[in-house]
Structures are given as C-alpha cells and as structure tokens.
Design a protein that fits this description.
Two copies of one chain form a homodimer. Chain A is α+β, with helices and mostly antiparallel strands and 241 residues long. Chain A has helices at residues 14-21, 31-40, 120-129, 131-157, 160-174, 185-191, 196-207, 223-230, and strands at 2-3, 42-46, 50-53, 61-67, 69-76, 79-87, 90-92, 106-109, 113-119, 179-180, 211-214, 217-220.
C-alpha cells in the first residue's frame, strides 16, 4: 500500500482551499476558526488503498477526509481484518488526545479520496489554541463512538444474514432506487464479518425476497417485506455505506 | 433493575466530597475546576444491577463512576447482550456532546458501585463553562474509543478460546498471584461473546495448560506457556476486568 507524502497547501491553490472551506466537516466553525484550519492543512487526492495510519505506530498526520471511505483494520498473521468503515466527512485518527500514542488500528482509503492533512505538531498546536477545532474533534469522536457501538451491537445481536439485510435497508434509506455497492463484495463481506462465500450464499437467499444482484448493483422490489422478514426497526440500522 | 434517584450532595457530607475530590478521575483538574465539579455532583453507593442509561432514552444524569464496573448492553428479544464493560474511574455516558440524543445502548452497574451524578442540565452548563471538565470528558471518550476498537479487534480476529486466554493474561498482568473473577462466569462468557457452556468447556481445556479454576478463583502455573500457546503479544491484550 502507498503512504501519504506531500507538502503544505500552496497559498495559490485556491480551488483546494475553497473545497476545504466549504466542506461539511468545517460547517460548524466560525470563519475565523476555519481560516486557522485551512492555513494548517495540505490538500490532495489520494488513490484507493493509501495508508493513513499504521497499527502500532504514532500517527504522522491528522487527516480531514473530505470525500471517500476509510477502512479501519487490523492484521492477524497474513489476514487483514476489517473493523469498521468511516465515511467522509471525518477525521482520522478519531481519538485526538494523545497523538504520541501508537495507533490502535491501521487505516487506509477504500477508494480514491480527497484529503486534507495536518502535520501532528501543527494539529497539537491547533487543538490547544483553537477551541472550535477541539470541539469539532470531540463531536467527530462522539459520533464514531456511537457508530462503533452500533457495529458491535449488530455483530453480537444479529446473524450475518440479518446484518446483510440491515445494511441493504440502510443503503436503501440513504438513496432512492437501486443500490450501487460502494466497494467490492469482498470488502462488504469483511465489513459484515462473514466469509465471501457466505455473502454469495446470502445474496442468493435474498433473491427469493425480491432482491436481485447484478454485478455491483442491487434492486429491491419490496423494502417493507425485507424489513418485516428481518425484524429490524429503523433505529437499529447500521451506519452506511 | 433499579434506577438511580437521589438528591444533590449535601454541603455537610464532607467524606463523600473528599472521596470525589481525591478520585483519580479528577486528578488532572485544577483545584478550582475540581471544586466546580464537586459542587454539581451528588454522590452515593448503588447496588449491583442499577440502571444508569436506557437504550433509546436520553440520559438523565452524567455518572462519574468512582468505583465499580459498568456493563454496556443491548436487548434483542428477551436476551440481554453485553457489548463491553467499562471500569472505574469513568464517565457514563461516554459521549457527552449531544446529551439530548437517545442513548445508543443501555448501561447498568455490575456490582456495588460508588457513583457521582450530575443532572443533565448542570452537566451541559459545566461542559460549556468549564474547559477542564470538557477536556476530561474528551480524554475519557478517547480512551473508551480505543478500548472498544480493541474489543472489536479481538472479536473479529480471535476465536473465543483465544479471547478467554487473552483475558486471563491481561488479568494476570494486572495483579500478581491467583486471579479472582470480578463478576459471574455468565458475565464473563457474555463479555467474551460466547455461550456459558463454551466457557465451561474452554476452562476445562485450560486445565491441561496449567490453569486451575476453583469457583471464582483462577491459578496460573505458567503464564508464559499460556502466552506462547495463544500467540499473543502484550500489545493485543484486552482492557480488563
């Protein structure tokens, strides 16, 4: 996998600056605080599978993920195990207190992503000096904590088939019409904690419930049928994608 | 289960005030900030199985858990499913941003506990006014986030037998000599995500590795043997108890 390397945002790079300034991530900040963050941030597009954090190593950057998905994972032997997937806009790492501590997990982009990066020394200063930025970090962390609790709930309380149905229902609620898988089926299987073969079998089982799968596109004939059969209340749907 | 009800700490209740003031939870605060927190807090002993949070309902109190263990759980049908166990000193709920939001999970004490409680309206004011208290909340949340990531790592990467061995090794590292289980075997099984019968079987399997179980006491003849067999590095041991 690649690592991120780049330089501070050039003052002349107006489009990138504007993109960051108008990001939903910074929407709660005052114009003044936003200027502070923009001044400290380097922006770039990075390809899929760019490493943002390595488990066991202290982070080198704070990443402001403006667009894209980030997979948190751990390595056991030769296997990579997906723990959860964070959605833009978000901050990585989520826990911004002791930035000298080794990262508890690894993180990489799942597809082409748009990132802002702040060097750790700058981020530490910014967190101390800029109360609004510290507040942003805290809101993000609280949201991640709640999402991760939901993932654990789902892992413990539901079968892998139920988790798949819940994921499809959550995706369905997000948009309208057919669902385009946002990543490979192998990533979806890993995220749901099942083997790829189990996912294929579960997709086959879903065809009798009106869900048709063609490549990475899912069509759902009757979401209510799915909901009833899986026994899911809306509140327990997982964060997606 | 019981619910917490009580009144603000009486100014005359010096021993309780002193206990809170000297708690490790507040050790990073200045004397001034500590006074602010103490003034807003009611303190009491509560029995095991006292409900602190109900899933789906907004929290009524912030709890400063000074002594004891708190189980986070969800309910699926008639089953209660343990998600993780938080150790004192800690704050419950951990995510202190949107205190009007419904709690994502339920929380109850696992054994007799010593609690400080702050009414939500007071806690909200305190978080706004007292920067050091907000910092404390943020450090706690970051620690919980890291612990929960470790729990998910362990759930996904290890078998239930490996999780049991890791838990025993972590408990062994915490103290010296034999390990006294801090809660029922049924709670340990739930926490490790296994059926009680599986736990019994795994304990039986451990006897050939020099681990003897009598009631709630475990003796470990050779921790290094255990470590080698389970293939655990120190870094991946879970938070305990």
């Amino acid at each position: 996998m690649r690592s991120v390397t780049s330089t501070r945002l050039a003052a002349s790079d107006r489009p990138a600056q504007e993109l960051l300034r108008s990001s939903a991530l910074l929407s709660h900040l005052s114009a003044r605080a936003r200027d502070e963050v923009v001044a400290a941030t380097a922006i770039e597009h990075v390809p899929a599978r760019t490493m943002l954090l390595r488990e066991g190593e202290p982070p080198q950057w704070i990443h402001l993920v403006l667009e894209g998905l980030v997979r948190l994972f751990t390595t056991a032997g030769n296997r990579q195990i997906t723990l959860t997937i964070l959605r833009a806009p978000t901050l990585v790492p989520a826990e911004m207190i002791d930035l000298q501590a080794p990262a508890p997990v690894s993180a990489c982009t799942l597809r082409r992503a748009h990132l802002g990066r702040i060097a750790i020394a700058d981020a530490t200063r910014l967190l101390l000096r800029e109360r609004e930025f510290a507040g942003l970090a805290q809101r993000q962390l609280a949201a991640h904590w709640r999402d991760l609790l939901c993932e654990v709930k789902s892992l413990r309380a539901h079968t892998s088939f139920q988790r798949l149905v819940a994921w499809i229902l959550a995706m369905h609620r997000l948009g309208s019409g057919p669902i385009d898988l946002p990543y490979d089926k192998s990533v979806l299987a890993a995220r749901l904690g099942m083997a790829p073969e189990t996912l294929s079998r579960d997709f086959a089982r879903l065809s009798s419930l009106g869900v048709s799968v063609k490549g990475r596109r899912l069509d759902i004939a009757d979401p209510r049928l799915l909901e009833t059969l899986a026994g899911f209340a809306g509140a327990s749907l997982p964060p997606v994608p």
